[in-house]
Amino acid sequence: MPFLMPMTLSLHSTSSILPAIEKIILEMTNLEGFLKYGDSWKKMDETDLRTYLGLLILAGVYRSRGEAAASLWDAESGRPIFQATMPLKLFHTYSRLLCFDNCESRPARHVTDKLAAIREVWDKWVEQIIMTTSAAGIYGNFGQANYSAAKLGMLGLANTLSIEGKKYNVNCNTIAPTAGSRLTETVMPPDLLENLKAEYVAPLVLWLCHEDCRENGSLFEVGAGWVGKLRWERAKGAILRQNTRPMTPEDVRDQWDKICDFTNADKIATIGGEFFSI
């Protein structure tokens, strides 16, 4: 729970920021502030940052209840803690400089951020890389279009890394975990959360990272003590092209059952296998 100190709002989550990360945030914010406001910029310090983050989180709580952010500073109907802690104008200034998310650039960042981390460890010649995707990426999910696309993109990236790294003896596998988190604590019943502990996911990760494990380019679903490997299957399909006439939509219609028949389906694992089997 938040509590008010003289001129400072502190929350457990904001006070737990790693010093190195906090230092980077402060340096970049102050640099941007100086570039934007020049000599009029008042340098942000640790207290300012923690105060802002605390107010930002608290404002989110009230906004979820239908209260507009600006109204929280209103002299008559607002919340006293906001007026007493930081001026609204300064809060807006920090918000312009500390941009935590951008829905337009989010899909690209889902990929590039992960790739940057892989480049860092790749140069150190690690032997095992574990990527994390989601069931939403594998199967899709209502209301998660951008998230699903990004997570399936992670699987494609991992599959390519498994090919690129093979000649260097670097393996790359992907997990799709089902686990409870702080975000789901308020929407899942306690008994379900108890069965979705991270402890039921970690053993798979540890094995995939072990020097004796030679698995490569694979995808695993894991959660609640269950682990299963996923693979692609492709129906035998049907040859519709004929030398005597063009291929038509009616040809597709007439062979639809055969096109969709997975009896004795092919288990395609590589793009080469996909191409040459055609």
TrEMBL record:
PROSITE patterns from the xrefs? ADH_SHORT
Task: Keyword check for Transport, yes or no.
Answer: no
* SUPFAM superfamilies for this protein: NAD(P)-binding Rossmann-fold domains (SSF51735)
Could you tell me which Gene3D superfamilies the record lists for this protein?
A: 1.10.287.4290, NAD(P)-binding Rossmann-like Domain
Q: Where is the PiggyBac transposable element-derived protein domain?
A: 24-128
For this chain, one GO molecular function annotation is:
oxidoreductase activity
So which domain of life are we looking at? Eukaryota
- Keywords, comma-separated and alphabetical: Oxidoreductase
TM ranges: none
Q: Which Pfam families match?
A: DDE_Tnp_1_7
The family this protein is said to belong to: Belongs to the short-chain dehydrogenases/reductases (SDR) family.
Name of protein:
PiggyBac transposable element-derived protein domain-containing protein
From which source organism is this entry? Periophthalmus magnuspinnatus
